[in-house]
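Mods, move this if it's the wrong board.
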Amino acid sequence: MIQVRPRSLALTLAATFALVAGCGGATSSTPVTTAPATPSNATWDATAKAARGTTVNWYLWGGSDAINTFVDTTYGTALKERYDITLKRVPVADTVDAVNQVLAEKQAGTERGAADLIWINGENFSTLRQAGMLRTNWARTLPNAALVNWDDPALNRDFGVPVDGMESPWSSAQLQLIADPSRTPMDTLPRSYAAFATWACAHPGRATYIAPGPGGFVGTRFVKGALYELTGGAASWQRFDQRQWAAQSSKLWAYLNELKPCLWRKGATYPRDENEMHALFANHEIDLSLTQAIAGPATLVAAGTLPAGVQTFVFDANMIGDFNYVAIPTNAPHPAAALVLANLILDPAMQAAHVRPESGFGLGPAIDPARITDAAQRTEFTEALAARGDGATPVTDLQSSRASDAAPKYQDLIERGWRDNVLRAG
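Not the wrong board. Structure tokens:
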């Protein structure tokens, strides 16, 4: 997944509607706490009307040609045809660039900023929330928000930080393993971290994981999942507690150091990213790889990165998954258009389109298929999930094994701790 983390309250959606319908101007960044309201059809129609003829400036990571093309053609075309809104995709090298722009606008007192919508999550979300520069109480009031399972802790908390109506989900990703059934029959594969260690030591040198740290985000998640299993699950790691970390982290280092001599090259070195791990797998140096692509291995197979016939699978629990989101700055110049785009993103047809491997996303849905009531839309969505191929992890397995990511401060502790206590140990 693309990574792009908590305390502002902006205007309610109802107030937003009144504002954009009146003059289309920006809102104040002053925090306001109000209860969210469900908009009536008339109110939503007024929002769509206010957005007509405007341009929505969507700031998002621009490093994937496939995603860029999908955004321009799929969302751009639908926005224009349905709502007469022009989509301006503003690519950024890193989402922090968009965050810094919004912060600079706040410092300068700019009431009408440049960004209407930002693809965001993690620490970037937390930064803008703390700065009071994100609208709140709007995400759950979108018409298509009824399709979102807001009770899912992996969705309603962003790296342990409550979303609180300031973000609307776009797509999902989840840690998974990759295996080749012709080499390792699926019914013999480990389904827990304890079983992974047993399997690795029974097959010396045939397993490894990605080094946690810069470029090794997937490896960090693999190590976090081990921490969860060793300490009773994800729930106690959603809020930062230094004392808990001091008391429990030794269990993680002990597990990883016991595992170390059983790994590829006896743990003297580790793949630095997914591409390097996939190459080891494809060259038969190891028998398991790691991915976050819910779309399954089809895209990687088509690119020649992985051999045909591979499958993804998950442990029974502690497979960290999360969501990508969009957020609206408090000084968005076209907030009505931003609301319309955020709602369009959750449309079942749009979600089905990005789930298909040919989209190039490799990401999963943000909506819950069980909440789609229209028969034709449900069929289309089911077909899109099926198009992921036989090698993709079943959606039910993903849902049952998914765990929320930990609070942001644990990220650096795990990455630095791993280097000091595992990589350099011995």
